[in-house]
Write a structure and sequence with these properties.
It is built from ten helices and 17 strands. By secondary structure, it is of the alpha/beta class. It has two domains: about 130 residues, Rossmann fold (3-Layer(aba) Sandwich); about 240 residues, Dihydrodipicolinate Reductase, domain 2, CATH 3.30.360. The protein has a nine-stranded mixed beta sheet with strand order 16-15-14-13-7-12-11-8-17. Bound molecules: NADPH dihydro-nicotinamide-adenine-dinucleotide phosphate and 1,5-anhydro-D-fructose.
Amino acid sequence: MSKKPLNIGLVGYGFMGRTHTNGYKRVADFFPELGITPVLKAVCGRSEDKTKAFSEQWGYESYETDFEKLIARDDIDAIDICTPNDTHAPISIAAAKAGKMILCEKPISRTTPEGEEMVAAVEQAGVANTVWYNYRRLPAVTLAKQIIDSGKLGKIFHYRANFLQDWTINADLPQGGAGLWRLDAAAAGSGVTGDLLAHCIDTAIWLNGGISDVTAMTETFIKERMHTGTGKVEKVGIDDACAFMCHFENGSLGLFESTRYARGHKALYTFEINGADASLRWDLHDLNRLEMYDHSDEGPQRGWKSIHVTDGEHPYMDHWWVPGLIIGYEHSFVHQVADFLKALEEGKPCEPTFKSALETAKVCDAVLESGKSRQWVNV
Ligand SMILES: NC(=O)C1=CN([C@@H]2O[C@H](COP(=O)(O)OP(=O)(O)OC[C@H]3O[C@@H](n4cnc5c(N)ncnc54)[C@H](OP(=O)(O)O)[C@@H]3O)[C@@H](O)[C@H]2O)C=CC1
Ligand SMILES: O=C1CO[C@H](CO)[C@@H](O)[C@@H]1O
């Protein structure tokens, strides 16, 4: 079957540049039913040496060192944004104006108003768009969504999530530079709230519905760091840790915690949801497993059970290996590419769109505001 090409212009060749490119390279082999196939047309970064090396290693046909030039090219259909958060709005808005489809990394923006401009730009241009909240596309997380939507959990009382890391405990780390732009408020917007809790909030809204109000506690443990831009020691403007409570619109209570100061934890993302009839829990470190407690089980065998989400009947799994064999983190990005291409074929939006991802930005802003005011804040 001859496939319709979708010419990709990737901006950013770092961590996410690699995961997305791997997704584009794998998708046609593992999702052969798709009629559209990505073509690695061009990659863009500011450093010419590094961008050229990436383009050669990963098989891009060409490279650019200016995102405006990439966007202006007639041979590019979709712009994929894998750059620090302060660049999401200018790249998206320019791409939308040029009529390009956009796949943008999370968080959609540094702030809600910035995100609103991005939503307006894609809606005015009528271009396909999505935000890479990839954890939704791990089979066990998608299975949790299916179980919750079936009503099996009954009335929901609680949702709790954690995202714990420990990589910024070292006070000598500067703010700014590759990867370390996350410590610079101007580039990142916020700290763990926009970087890590945004994932937890996206999953929570998807699984359990909207969040109505929040009360938060934020802390910046290391108050000053060398800034790579100015070469001076400057005040740190991001939140190093954040915990918040919230009400969901369905009446349930939420409890969220994220920090980069939990010694020993590198990327511990967990969530649990408790309903009247059943509970579910999931842990990124054991990502193919979904645990479930079903109160309708009777007798001494009632208890937490482990669903090994590796059978052909589980979400996405019929595209991979024989039943029982596992997949990993990188597959969530392959799944997002596959879902984006399928949505294009069907003329449907690929969730989360810019508009849906703005809901997460609004919760993040309310959390940060509450962390400062120490008051409950409506979303
Ligand atoms: N979905 C997920 O799970 C994850 C999402 N992310 C998100 O992905 C985004 C990128 O993060 P990550 O890949 O870790 O970042 P990296 O620091 O690894 O890479 C950033 C890349 O952006 C390029 N870049 C920066 N500014 C520009 C510019 N103005 N024009 C063109 N290229 C530019 C850099 O190259 P150069 O310096 O040469 O310009 C570099 O290649 C962030 O928004 C982050 O929040 C990150 C990790 C996981
Ligand atoms: O999921 C993630 C894992 O951690 C990274 C930071 O270290 C985040 O940027 C990212 O979104």
